[in-house]
Specification:
Layout: E1 2-10, H1 18-30, E2 36-37, E3 42-45, H2 50-65, E4 71-79, H3 88-100
Antiparallel strand pairs: 1-3, 1-4, 2-3
Helix pairs in contact: 1-2
């Protein structure tokens, strides 16, 4: 199941874009997801790739409603199909455990 990282960059004349990130994360939560916010991306685990487009459309529409006329979005997908829905935090935990053993 895909783990997806989104980086949504509103092109606005402000230095801080946190209010836009807040709205993007709200969209994900409204969809019943548990987003993980990092300093430069937001990560979610999805049941299908079809959901990516739906989410991006909702996020872009929300930001457009805030007056943003241009949005650049970068998406990275880790689509592992031999495992059920994966928890991104568990993936990080495995790496951290490996580092402790080295």
């Amino acid at each position: 199941m895909p783990v997806v990282s989104f980086k949504v960059v509103p092109i606005v004349g402000e230095k801080s874009v946190s209010k836009y990130v807040v709205e993007a994360v709200k969209v994900l939560k409204e969809e019943g997801l548990e987003p993980i916010v990092t300093p430069d991306t937001t990560v979610v685990s999805l049941e299908s790739l079809e959901k990516v487009g739906v989410l991006l459309e909702r996020i872009h529409e929300r930001l457009k409603g805030m007056g943003v006329d241009r949005i650049v979005t970068i998406v990275m997908v880790d689509d592992r199909r031999d495992k059920p829905l994966r928890d991104p935090l568990e993936m990080v935990k495995k790496v951290e455990e490996g580092l402790q053993g080295s």
